[in-house]
Design brief:
Elements lengths: L10 H4 L3 H26 L1 H8 L12 H7 L5 H30 L4 H25 L5 H15 L2 H12 L5 H8 L2 H16 L4 H22 L12 H11 L7 H20 L6 H6 L3 H30 L3 H7 L1 H21 L3 H19 L5 H31 L11 H20 L5 H20 L10 H6 L3
């Protein structure tokens, strides 16, 4: 196995300028902020559920009758949880549709404009959804669904744009390790969202939405004024020119006389091709590229599992083990830590092997065992965190590789060499198909066992309050007494 030249004698670092570093950091933190605001919703689900079901067994709030009636969106925490899952589903479906559209738009408009608009407008929607409605005490299921559909469409502008910008600046050499490290932006965003939410959750869940929305809006402004979409904007050679130059450097300096006449036309053809082939690739052409459909379907299966952890891990830890919501938020960070390490290390290995599929296949096989192990985790925070990190390593790592490095590889194949306007479209197809798979995974109804568990917990809560004479049995809602007799 030959060691790639890009890793010898610091060649990988020597080819990067300070412009590359700035682009890396701006795109990294822009998508981190998008994911942070998205993660906030999953981190405060317990608090939202309590606010929407201010019934007698909910001891966290004490409200007058008129306010209780306005907040009482659902008769039980079970129905509130189902609605939260519905919001996840409609977000993912709208996000998936938006990805297909955003990829096409990103290849035809300025990537900086599209990304900045998506970040700022999404921040405003998140503020209205989680903060303004709570400040005004206005609770409406139709409004929540509409806002979350719009948020999914707006947030979809992020990933195709940042991957396309990174693909414009970083070539194929060392792409696995560079994109593997860079794709940790989603996991860093999850960690950032969890930290921000847990730090202000004591004041109310609306402040968690407020903080993340404000930071994301500020990030969108910075992107608009600071991001360079491609090296050509400042007069530097593009990635394809550098790659062609590297290929030419391996040719013999002295060739036979019979080949001299052939050399000149080849260079002129390449130059004409580079100049003329700038038209954005169509959606159908992008789907027909080798590997796009296969990796898209594989990512749909993988993202289903990955987003189940993303949306429900803090909620699961809080309800299954009885841990405080803030503690569950902080503990869920270990899944993202495993994903960061997995994406970087597996990207490096794929660069060394110069093959990505075998690395992905092995990691996904090991992911099956890690999922089984985590499902049997005991009520111990240290063991749970360790198993969580291992699971994130084998699931988050391949997810980061497919959505970043492999998408960039697919969008810069030799078949479309010279057309940088294919990257966002291909990335949108891969990530959009993955989001459809994740949305299907959220379309689950509660099992009878879950209903029995909810009934048991509600009955015990009612019985405890009645024994303390905090309320009379006549105050118990009729539907709750019928479902869970005390």
């Amino acid at each position: 196995m030959a060691w790639p030249n890009i890793f010898q004698r610091g060649a990988l670092l020597s080819q990067f300028s300070h412009h590359h570093v700035v682009v890396f950091l701006l795109t990294f933190f822009s998508y981190s902020l998008l994911h942070a605001s998205r993660k906030t919703f999953s981190n405060v689900k317990v608090s939202i559920s309590k606010q929407w079901t201010p019934s007698a067994f909910n001891k966290s709030i004490e409200l007058p009758v008129e306010i209780w009636s306005s907040n009482h969106l659902f008769p039980s925490a079970e129905e509130a949880t189902l609605f939260l899952g519905t919001l996840d589903t409609i977000f993912l479906f709208s996000y998936a549709v938006g990805l297909f559209i955003s990829g096409i738009v990103g290849d035809r408009l300025n990537l900086r404009w599209v990304l900045s608009f998506g970040m700022c407008s999404s921040a405003l929607v998140v503020f209205v959804f989680g903060t303004l409605t709570e400040w005004l005490h206005f609770y409406n299921k139709g409004l929540y669904c509409s806002l979350w559909i719009v948020n999914g469409l707006l947030q979809s502008s992020g990933w195709p744009c940042v991957v396309a910008v990174m693909g414009n600046w970083f070539g194929k050499a060392g792409r696995g390790v560079v994109f593997g490290l860079w794709s940790a932006c989603a996991s860093v965003g999850n960690i950032l969202g969890a930290c921000l939410a847990s730090s202000v959750l004591q004041y109310g869940y609306e402040y968690a939405f407020l903080v993340t929305a404000a930071v994301q809006f500020a990030g969108g402004i910075i992107i608009f004024f600071g991001l360079l979409v491609s090296p050509e904007e400042i007069g530097l050679p593009g990635i394809e020119a550098e790659e062609n130059f590297e290929d030419d450097s391996h040719r013999p300096l002295i060739s036979g006389a019979e080949n001299e006449d052939d050399a000149e036309p080849n260079y002129s053809i390449q130059e004409d091709k580079t100049i003329t082939q700038v038209k954005a690739i169509s959606f159908y052409q992008a789907c027909c590229l080798p590997g796009v459909i296969a990796y898209s379907l594989a990512y749909a299966c993988l993202k289903l599992v990955n987003y189940s952890f993303f949306f429900w891990l803090p909620f699961y830890l809080s309800n299954n083990f009885g841990w405080k919501e803030a503690e569950a938020d902080k503990l869920s960070i270990w899944y993202d830590v495993g994903g960061i390490i997995g994406g970087t290390l597996q990207g490096f290995i794929s660069d060394v092997l110069q093959k990505r599929a075998p690395v992905l296949a092995l990691s996904l096989l090991l992911a099956v065992g890690s999922l089984v192990g985590y499902s049997r985790s005991p009520n111990d925070k240290s063991i749970n965190a360790l198993l969580m990190a291992v699971t994130g390593f084998f699931i988050g790592g391949p997810s980061n590789m497919i959505s970043s490095a492999i998408s960039a590889d697919l969008g810069r194949q030799e078949l479309i060499q010279g057309s940088t306007e294919a990257l966002a479209t291909v990335t949108g197809i891969v990530d959009g198909t993955g989001s459809i798979g994740a949305a299907v995974g959220q379309m689950r109804k509660q099992t009878p066992r879950q209903k029995v568990t909810d009934c048991w917990s509600h009955s015990n809560a009612w019985g405890e309050l009645i024994r303390k004479e905090d309320l009379r049995t006549t105050d118990v809602p009729r539907e709750t007494r019928a479902m869970c007799p005390v």
